[in-house]
Design brief:
Layout: E1 16-23, E2 26-33, E3 41-45, H1 55-66, E4 70-74, H2 79-88, H3 95-111, E5 120-125, H4 128-138, E6 143-149, E7 167-172, H5 176-188, E8 193-198, H6 210-225
Parallel strand pairs: 3-4, 3-5, 5-6, 6-7, 7-8
Antiparallel strand pairs: 1-2, 2-4
Helix pairs in contact: 1-6, 3-4
Length: 235
């Protein structure tokens, strides 16, 4: 049996607001949660056909909110694009598109009064990890940390050497192909980086305790590297 995903406890005390983010001619739907005295804001980049309703990412987001970190759960594809992708499966691997959308969301967070002063973190899953790393490379003055869960950082390719944000790569111990891809990508990163292998976990971290470990690792990484002021010197 997989990990029990229990959401909603924190949202009962910290309201979540539905937002629409205009990026690249598209209107992207998102859920924004900003606790009082937030220590940063984390934008989630979903991948491989997933969106803001991903139960795993929502569970991790709840963990972050409980630690007074804001979260932006975002659909990087529009509803029409998602319908098309269900048939073609092409857009979920369109890394430049996903990266432009996430970078636009980072820019939107700087314009949004509730988050303008907060340092931004990016949490990417699957192909969303590549989008997170490219966004970090594109916005070094805004993105203060990156976490990848079962991600494909190798798909960020030429952007890896330009990432300045401290980066945590989390991979399941029973996901050997992705472990190798993360090791290879990690070797190309010049920033502070760490590879964490969750023993016994498969790609989706469905095993008991696996997702809890991901949440704890992500929370600690963002708390260690994000700061309230978003005005970071570009590297």
């Amino acid at each position: 049996m997989g990990s029990r995903i229990d959401m909603g406890a924190q949202s009962a005390t910290t309201p979540t607001r539905a937002v629409t983010i205009p990026v690249d001619g598209a209107q992207l739907a998102g859920d924004l949660t900003v606790p009082e005295a937030a220590g940063g804001i984390v934008a989630f980049a979903h991948g491989s056909g997933s969106g803001r309703h991903s139960p795993r990412n929502r569970w991790v987001a709840e963990r972050l909110v409980a630690a007074r970190l804001g979260t932006l759960l975002l659909d990087l594809l529009t509803g029409e694009e998602e319908e098309r992708d269900l048939s073609t499966r092409e857009l979920r691997f369109d890394i430049p598109l996903l990266a432009r959308r996430l970078t636009g969301a980072v820019d939107w967070l700087e314009r949004e009064p509730a988050t303008a002063a907060l340092d931004v973190g990016c949490f990417g899953a699957s192909t969303g990890a590549a989008a997170a790393l490219i966004a970090a490379a594109e916005r070094p003055a805004r993105v203060g940390a990156v976490v990848s869960r079962g991600g494909r950082p190798d798909l960020a390719r030429d952007a890896l050497a330009s990432v300045a944000a401290p980066t945590l790569l989390i991979v399941g111990g029973a996901d050997p192909v992705v472990i190798d891809l993360n090791r290879e990508a990690g070797a190309q990163l010049r920033c502070e980086r760490r590879l964490e292998i969750v023993e016994g976990a498969t790609h989706l971290f469905e095993e008991p305790g696996a997702l809890e470990k991901v949440g704890d690792l992500a929370r600690d990484w963002f708390l260690a590297h994000l700061r309230r002021s978003g005005r970071r010197e570009a590297s």
